[in-house]
Amino acid sequence: MNEFSIIDKKGLNFVTISGNKQLTDGDVVSFSAPAIDLDGGNYKFMYELKEAVELLKREVLAYMQGKQAPKAQLEMFEGDEESHDAFGDAPEVKKN
């Protein structure tokens, strides 16, 4: 899923969900689900859909108010005097 929209038609709320899938050959297939009536439809998973839509609405609002993803964990090691190899292991200690 990469897009959802809530549409108000004559006082009823409808949600549409769209997305795409990249196939193994590199082609991309796009799809859109039919609009679902959130106020009186007979969709089998209505409770779960309403919960997901409410969560998405809260996330969008938080984003619009400045919420950002956490910084990358690699920043924990900024300024670390000790160097690490590509696997994150500490360097070998040379024995005399």
Helix-strand blueprint:
Elements: E1 3-9, E2 12-22, E3 28-32, E4 36-37, H1 46-64
Antiparallel strand pairs: 1-2, 2-3, 2-4
Give structural notes.
- The protein is of the alpha+beta class.
- The protein has a domain at 3-67: Nuclear Transport Factor 2, Chain: A (Roll), CATH 3.10.450.
- The chain has 1 helix and 4 strands.
- Strands 1, 2, 3 and 4 form a 4-stranded antiparallel sheet that branches.
- The protein is flat and about 60 Å long.
- The model has no long low-confidence stretch (mean pLDDT 82).
Based on CA inertia axes, which overall geometry fits?
A: flat
Rg measurement, Å: 23 Å
Helix content: 10-25%
Span between termini: 58 Å
Question: In short, what is this structure?
Answer:
The chain is an alpha+beta fold. The protein is built from one helix and four strands.
List its traits.
alpha+beta, 4 strands, Nuclear Transport Factor 2, Chain: A, 4-stranded antiparallel beta sheet, 96 residues, 20% helix
